[in-house]
Amino acid sequence: MTIHALDIERSAEAERLARVDLAAVHRLSARFGWNDNIYNHLTCAVPGRADRFLVKAHGYLMSEITASNLIEVDSEGNTLSGEGEVETTALHIHAAIHLRVPHATCVLHLHPPFSTWLTCLERNRLDMVNQACLRYHDRIAYDDEYAGLATAREEGERMARVIGNRRVVMHANHGITTVAPTVAEAFTDLFFLERCCEDYYRVVASGAKPRLVDEELAERTALEMEAMSETESELTFAAWKRVLDREEPDYAH
Fold this sequence. Notes:
Blueprint: H1 3-31, E1 41-46, E2 49-55, E3 71-74, E4 79-81, H2 88-100, E5 106-110, H3 113-119, E6 140-143, H4 153-163, E7 168-171, E8 175-180, H5 183-206, H6 215-247
Parallel strand pairs: 6-7
Antiparallel strand pairs: 1-2, 1-5, 2-3, 3-4, 5-8, 7-8
Helix pairs in contact: 2-4, 3-5, 5-6
């Protein structure tokens, strides 16, 4: 096999794996109740191409997504492979983030119930009330400017600026976005953020005064968690994919 042919084969395999991982996140989002009818959008850049990404065709439920029915689109919204079109706000949000944020190989934008609840509060910050929350200590970008639907690229560009070098964004009156170099890391950040927001909701709903973790201790613990995050993400995502392999194996086809 020539070097050129080998490169093509490796590129094709990398895209296949990206498709499988992204399809898995769609199925898990539906399973966990993070989906919003046919809306919300999860994308992964085509390996080696920040200007092209994989996304579900508009009109599909997340529970219907498979590796093979994801479409590939360019940053202008042209469908390059597959059938269907990208939803308008998905195009403008994700194209801008993939192009402008270097670590945003995977971009997950959703409206999960508890994290979205927090974005609707006047004080929309996640307080450090338990150990799970500490992974996000001073690591969330708060987007406090709700600007309506992202029907133009400018809104996606604004969101990309808010993200900066962070991996988690909470959009006021809207929802959340996680971005990461891998699908596994973006998914794991999303999973634990929603869980933390659920914990925080219960604390707030109790009416009792929260007991906050000391700032210095919170940061030290966050650094320890950060050092383990890549391995933790790989193991977490692999475990949930095993569940799908048993119960919804068509996702990978």
